Amino acid sequence: MLLNNVLGRTVAALRICTNGTHAPASRTTFAGHYVQRQSNRQYLVRAFSSVNGNMVKQGPRPLVICGPSGSGKSTLLKKLFKEFPDTFGFSVSHTTRKPRPGEENGIHYHFVSVEEMQSAIEKGEFIETAVFSGNMYGTSKKAVENVQHQGKVCVLDIEIEGVKQIRNSDRLNPLLVFVNPPSIGELERRLRGRQTETEESLQKRLNTARSEIEYGTSPGNFDVVVQNNNLKQAYEDLRNFIVHELETQQGQDVFFVTSLVSNYKTHEV
Ligand SMILES: Nc1ncnc2c1ncn2[C@@H]1O[C@H](COP(=O)(O)OP(=O)(O)OP(=O)(O)O)[C@@H](O)[C@H]1O
Ligand SMILES: Nc1nc2c(ncn2[C@@H]2O[C@H](COP(=O)(O)O)[C@@H](O)[C@H]2O)c(=O)[nH]1
Fold first, then answer.
1. How large is the ipTM?
2. Which residues sit with their C-beta closer than 6 Å to ligand 1?
3. From the first residue on, what is the mean pLDDT of each consecutive set of 10 residues in the chain (269 residues)?
4. If both were cysteines, with which of 131, 143, 151, 216 could 178 make a disulfide (CB 3.0 to 4.6 Å apart)?
5. CB of 55 within 8 A of CB of 31?
6. 63-254: CATH, from 3.40.50.300, 2.60.120.10, 2.140.10.10, 3.40.605.10
7. Hey, is 241 helix, strand or coil?
């Protein structure tokens, strides 16, 4: 049912030519479009429109995922990337913290020195930056562009101060997801269980968690709060929210990603 609806709307919205270009079937509001054929079933659309005389990209809205350290953001995102590898791309942040065992430079983070980070900030390379648990973190413009140039939905895993900076700017216009832990006690149990933090780092993260939860669960600050008590349920809630939002954007012809459809077929039919 869902598959048919989605495909039906795609066919109506786009006429895709075999040489990789296309003409919009019914919409003329975009100054230019192009379609990239990625595989037999997957087409990614990037559209550009003119707003106030400037060319701005009308791509899929990025997804920002936020929540206290240990609330389960990375765990949920891992599942999302596994299920939809062609649809979502991770914005690789910069950080001055040391890599954990298994973390790779350029994949999990760009691990840099404080001097390198400060120099990049001065050069205006970041969309947002924050200090968290004694370390610097930041989303570079390049990190987001790298994902967007692949035609994927850009996913940012960032803390609250970064979210506030993005909210206060007209950059990105992301969907905002807050991952809420069951309780501070359970958060501590999960963080300790992860065995990545020193006692000092753990205490800093727990101290910050209370205010993060207060902000994150206050009405209007996020588009959705995903309650991560049970991982399976939390992932289903996150996935449902995202799929609904992408379908809504697709309905508005902001963009379209058929790889979601492919994945639905694989996973749900
Ligand atoms: N619903 C859950 N039930 C039990 N354990 C969970 C659940 N969700 C995540 N965890 C575990 O909690 C720990 C913290 O999760 P995760 O690393 O995903 O948190 P995070 O929000 O990404 O933290 P950080 O911001 O520090 O990167 C991990 O060991 C993970 O396996
Ligand atoms: N404001 C930003 N916050 C970021 C960024 N990258 C990660 N983070 C957040 O930092 C904490 C700690 O992460 P950890 O990997 O050290 O456990 C966590 O809340 C992340 O969401 C960023 O670029 N900007």
1. 0.99
2. 67, 69-75, 190, 193-194, 228, 230-231, 234
3. 31 26 30 34 34 48 97 98 96 97 97 98 98 97 95 96 93 94 98 96 96 97 98 98 89 51 32
4. 216
5. yes
6. 3.40.50.300
7. helix
